[in-house]
């Protein structure tokens, strides 16, 4: 049974989907803690599912590196097998990435390497793309540039708004993340080969 720590910054809709998936006794993972860099709305999902949560507020630390050290120390107390960035909108310091990767995963609402960064959906629309997608990657030192573990295309429909397109991408992200976790647990993905 894989131990997951999930980090969020916002509403936590992807977190909630993962918590629901972990309710299935046949799913080989469970969320042991949920962390945030701010007082995120999504922490209510952890409470609802009886999962401990923690807060390491970015603004309470003098530098990104000091914040990162505090975050890493807190994460390690939960002894996770995987750390999942789920709408976590803060760049992790290099030392944190080095300490956790390759067991540090992120979902991204684009078919990487297309449209990396914080506004993947908006950027796809602005580029006039006819399709975009969702990806699950290992976090590295770049911006959404780590090894791709799974991805799938999602069409851009005429008249799509950023919100409408993102709403169609999110279920794909959630499914891909659950599939990747399952593949890691069952040995079909070996993260150590990516180290």
From TrEMBL:
Enzyme active site: 108 (proton donor)
Pfam family, one: Formyl_trans_N
EC primary class: transferase
Alphabetized GO MF terms: phosphoribosylglycinamide formyltransferase activity
Functional note: Catalyzes the transfer of a formyl group from 10-formyltetrahydrofolate to 5-phospho-ribosyl-glycinamide (GAR), producing 5-phospho-ribosyl-N-formylglycinamide (FGAR) and tetrahydrofolate.
Site feature (Raises pKa of active site His) residues: 144
Enzyme Commission numbers on file: 2.1.2.2
Residues annotated for (6R)-10-formyltetrahydrofolate binding in this entry: 64, 89-92, 106
TM region positions: none
Gene designation per UniProt: purN
Annotated residues for binding of N(1)-(5-phospho-beta-D-ribosyl)glycinamide: 12-14
Catalysed reactions, semicolon-separated: N(1)-(5-phospho-beta-D-ribosyl)glycinamide + (6R)-10-formyltetrahydrofolate = N(2)-formyl-N(1)-(5-phospho-beta-D-ribosyl)glycinamide + (6S)-5,6,7,8-tetrahydrofolate + H(+)
The species this protein was found in: Amnibacterium kyonggiense
Xref: HAMAP family: PurN
Gene3D superfamilies recorded: Formyl transferase, N-terminal domain (3.40.50.170)
Protein name as it appears in the record: Phosphoribosylglycinamide formyltransferase
Domain Formyl transferase N-terminal: 3-181
Keywords on record: Purine biosynthesis, Transferase
Pathway(s) of this molecule: Purine metabolism; IMP biosynthesis via de novo pathway; N(2)-formyl-N(1)-(5-phospho-D-ribosyl)glycinamide from N(1)-(5-phospho-D-ribosyl)glycinamide (10-formyl THF route): step 1/1
Protein family according to the UniProt entry: Belongs to the GART family.
GO CC terms of this entry: cytosol
PANTHER family given in the database record: PHOSPHORIBOSYLGLYCINAMIDE FORMYLTRANSFERASE (PTHR43369)
One BP annotation, GO: 'de novo' IMP biosynthetic process
């Amino acid at each position: 049974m894989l131990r997951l720590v999930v980090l969020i910054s916002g509403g936590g809709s992807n977190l909630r989907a993962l918590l629901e998936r972990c309710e299935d006794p046949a799913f080989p993972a469970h969320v042991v803690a949920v962390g945030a860099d701010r007082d995120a709305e999504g922490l209510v999902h952890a409470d609802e599912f009886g999962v401990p949560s923690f807060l390491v507020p970015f603004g309470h630390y003098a530098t990104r590196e000091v914040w990162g050290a505090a975050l890493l120390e807190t994460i390690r107390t939960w002894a996770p097998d995987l750390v999942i960035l789920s709408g976590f909108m803060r760049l992790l310091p290099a030392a944190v990435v080095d300490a956790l990767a390759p067991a540090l995963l992120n979902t991204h609402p684009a078919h990487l390497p297309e449209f990396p960064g914080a506004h993947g959906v908006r950027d796809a629309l602005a580029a006039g793309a006819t399709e975009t997608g969702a990806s699950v990657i290992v976090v590295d030192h770049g911006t959404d540039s780590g090894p791709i573990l799974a991805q799938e295309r999602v069409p851009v429909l005429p008249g799509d708004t950023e919100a409408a397109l993102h709403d169609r991408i999110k279920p794909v992200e959630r499914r891909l993340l659950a599939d990747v976790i399952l593949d890691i647990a069952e040995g079909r993905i070996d993260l150590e080969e990516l180290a």
